[in-house]
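Lecture 7, part B: from sequences to assemblies.

Below are the input chains for today's worked example.
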Amino acid sequence: MVTRMRAVVCRELGPPESVTLVERDLPELADDRVRVRVGAAGVNYVDGLFVQGRYQIRPELPFVPGSELAGTVIEVGGAVTGWAPGDRAMASVGLGAFAGEIDLHPAQLTAVPDNLTDTQAATLGQSYATAWFSLTRRTQVHPGEWILVLGAAGGVGLATLDVARALELNTIAAASGPDKLELCIRRGAHEVIDYVTDDLKSRVRELTGGGADIAVDPVGGGHTQAALRSLGDFGRLLVIGFASGDIPDIPTNQVLLRNRSVLGVDWGSGP
Amino acid sequence: MTNPTANTELMTEVLRSAAEGVLNPIEPESRPLEAAGEAMRDLLDRRVAGKLCLVP
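Predicted structure of the full complex, as structure tokens:
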């Protein structure tokens, strides 16, 4: 029986490097909880925002960061049914995943498909949910349509490339630098654009023969307008986030032209 | 999470697609738990190509 656990702790809000790794006693497991040994915890942009105090929600201090994980059930509370030690489980938790063990409510747990590793499962939830929600709920896509993915080598970007491929879209991955573009090609991107050296709008127009049908933007900043202008007739710009730290303005004449749409994607609050 | 049922439904679709091999999630870069701070920093600074996870 494990009696001690390791956890990453944030004692005060500030730079991410200020978190510390501590060892502490494991509490007794509550009757209505399942204890999971964390096999892997995904690191997401939002985790750093929590620690910096830049997220909409400010957790009470101290807290253990880490928003998603996959691992193995090691102990089950007396009132819990449906889970047993040895079961593989994954969860999206908000906080607490950067630890050796975590106690969760069974409703938070999902079984891990056999063909996924813990590391894959721990990094799948947030990014794939966002990508899937974007392309199946916020807009309708059709096989053969052209999709431009900004920040394509990032978490949401790579998930979007994978979902787009599964939905039989033609993909253009935009990222900065040869390493990231090479990764996008390995992940099945049909075309790539380096937005350091290429002109995004003209390159997309050229590749698609008139304009992209969909643009997915988790980056914001200066690339958003270029992505909007790269859209063809009835093109849709999906606003996912602002990893660049810059929330751009959108010229509405560019929305009017060619009957374009700009759609917000906030999967946690919909549909 | 204003609509947990809809979110569960969405994740069920994602995981079914992954189990069927329709989706093919990338194998992320693994770092030890000790590297949590640096990992969050690298992600915020957009220095990471691909996905990142901590392995306790």
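Note for the exam: Chain A has a mean pLDDT of 95. Keep this in mind when comparing with the next example.
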